[in-house]
Fold these 2 entries.
Entry 1:
Amino acid sequence: MPDVENPRLGRAKARLGSSQGGLFAFVAPRWLLLYPNARLPGSWRHWSGTGSRMQIERYDGDREALLPLFALADDSHTQISRYVEQGEVLVAREGGEIVGHAQIIDTGDTGAFELKSIAVTQARQGEGLGRLLVAAAITRCRERGGQRLIVSTASCDIGNLRFYQLYGFRMSRIVRDAFGLSTGYPEGMLVDGITLRDQVVFEYDLSAD
Ligand SMILES: CC(C)(COP(=O)(O)OP(=O)(O)OC[C@H]1O[C@@H](n2cnc3c(N)ncnc32)[C@H](O)[C@@H]1OP(=O)(O)O)[C@@H](O)C(=O)NCCC(=O)NCCS
């Protein structure tokens, strides 16, 4: 097992198939969600660009244009190619620039959706956009009658484990050896110094307040 850590993996990413208050107070025509700065909670004080407006909206364009974002969230191009065209994608857009995405797919189980891919461009991470995207995905799944939202991440990705639990996701199961050569991930990859190997599946109860 190589002991060289992949710096690109300083945080979370690997995934495979499988709060809240005022933050979620939105909904607009044609699924356009508008977030004026004034509505950002206090913890987002560092929001950049006074007067700027961030929109979260459904993306109906060419998904290939979003591949760099998908690649931030998943190190396996093999896996990405299997799901990139699936489901619905929301994007965070500031002016003409897309700075984040969230992909929601229908799992096939009644009422169960999966947040299959989520990322914010590296330059804009830590500004609260991930939080907005998770909130938008939750709202969207509720609109579609969802009962639960699933998301999975690597057990070694401490940052992502924190991120999802901050927003009310609860651990539901562990898939051992989900990440490896057979699923399209290089052997011996390290995240936060821990070998990428197992997967944690989280669930968010959409029926809860
Ligand atoms: C994970 C990701 C989407 C979060 O988006 P973001 O815009 O950076 O997150 P936010 O600014 O909304 O952060 C919200 C909270 O989560 C925390 N958080 C987010 N990413 C974190 C990380 N890697 N480590 C620790 N905490 C993290 C923030 O510190 C913040 O907590 P705070 O309110 O206590 O300060 C983003 O970091 C990203 O794109 N990462 C690369 C792709 C990826 O890993 N996708 C998920 C695959 S499972």
Entry 2:
Amino acid sequence: MTQAEGAPFSVAIIGAGIGGLALAIGLLKKNVPCTVYESASKFDAVGAGIGLGPNALRAIELMDPKFRAMYDEVKVGNKSPDRVHEQIEILGIQEGFGITDDWHGGSVSHPAFERSSAHRKALLEIMESLIPPGTVQFNKRVIRLEQKSPQKVTIVFQDGEVVQSDIVVGCDGIKGMSRKVVLESRYPEEVPAKYNNTYIYRGITSMEEAKKRIGTYAEDARWWMGKGKGWAMYPISKGTEVNIVAFIHDPDEWVGEQATKEVTREEMFSDFAEFDHRLKALLDFVKPVRWPLFHHPNTPTYYKGRICLMGDSAHASSPAQAAGAGQGLEDALILSRLLGLVRRTNEVESAIQVYDAIRRPRAQAVVQESRDVGMAYFFLHPDFGDDLKKITADANVRLPKIWFYDLDRDLKLAEDSFNALVRYPACKDDVVTVSIAETTTSVPSRIAT
Ligand SMILES: Cc1cc2nc3c(=O)[nH]c(=O)nc-3n(C[C@H](O)[C@H](O)[C@H](O)COP(=O)(O)OP(=O)(O)OC[C@H]3O[C@@H](n4cnc5c(N)ncnc54)[C@H](O)[C@@H]3O)c2cc1C
């Protein structure tokens, strides 16, 4: 496709993670030319699993039905037929998993929810296959972004190259440089990610080894909970492997860089002293590396001029709801559709403005809720304490709001808002707040009325 056949402008995407690649897939489907600049030398998925809820699956289906079909080929759910609609079973970390204390497990589930997870590598391979070769340029670390003229952004790379683009989307992750460019002059306190008072350990093992240590508990997604501690585990890789994430609450500040910290195996074991022996046995497959969880609970805007934020650079979230990447996929759907509507370069700003109005309230609410749910899962939520029934009931109210969000309605709202802004530029500053599902957002008043 040449540029002339598609949009009259091109998009530069910084970062080839889930967010950046999804945006490229969505844009290419709408004939909007784009280039993805990635600092790494190749695609590199962290060795871990990822769960996608119905909202994320709907987003990828709307972006490209082939994307959804390919994901369906690699996904895996729970093995037990009676747990197909369950996100997690909640158990206790203590010896006996709480069953001897009369707790027989809580179910976070919904009849319309279908559990689905995959290995991140499998997801990235699918996304890579949907993007023409050459679209992603590796070894391209962006070190500076400047918008000197109203219509062009200058991108400066570490290797000395300088290119111009009509719009830049920072999909460069939680520590990405684009966040600083967008926020520093107006909201400097919101540039750095905030510590979520949690560190995790991660591991993957074969289903066979996991079952030797914990039996059929390994076959379905579960979250074992205790005071300030937790252990989440679920099948990936078509059920041949198991993904483990163990959570430790840390009331202190994270000392030093926002980076992983190696510890001895003894230090790691000391974090799990009160756990059931079957979970402790699985520590054989967990790396003695503490991974601090940071997030972006407040992001007052997702753009400055023609530079905008998407995915974790905009709204990195703690993983208690397994919803962070899903929000990046929703962003990619809305932004790609909006940019697909642009017919003259001076309409780009309207697309960005509508993207911000529609996506920011929803994504930021998910970040805030994930923090809250994380505290509940640590028995630290003031409303629930260690009452597993209340914790389960609360999760069963919150999660469906994420899973069954009406993306089709957001797409319609995005299109209508964009058309109104382009037709009536005077209403650009004239925004009102309307209710969208469980969140609120601002759209041009001519649409809201
Ligand atoms: C433990 C854990 C479990 C999770 N589980 C789930 C889950 O089950 N479901 C879910 O939906 N979400 C989950 N998440 C969240 C999810 O992992 C993230 O939301 C998602 O991976 C973010 O993708 P991204 O593309 O925005 O950022 P990233 O994956 O961080 O990608 C950013 C990319 O930008 C590149 N880059 C950075 N700086 C530059 C630069 N200057 N120049 C060029 N390139 C650059 C990086 O190399 C990288 O490739 C989890 C998160 C954690 C921590």
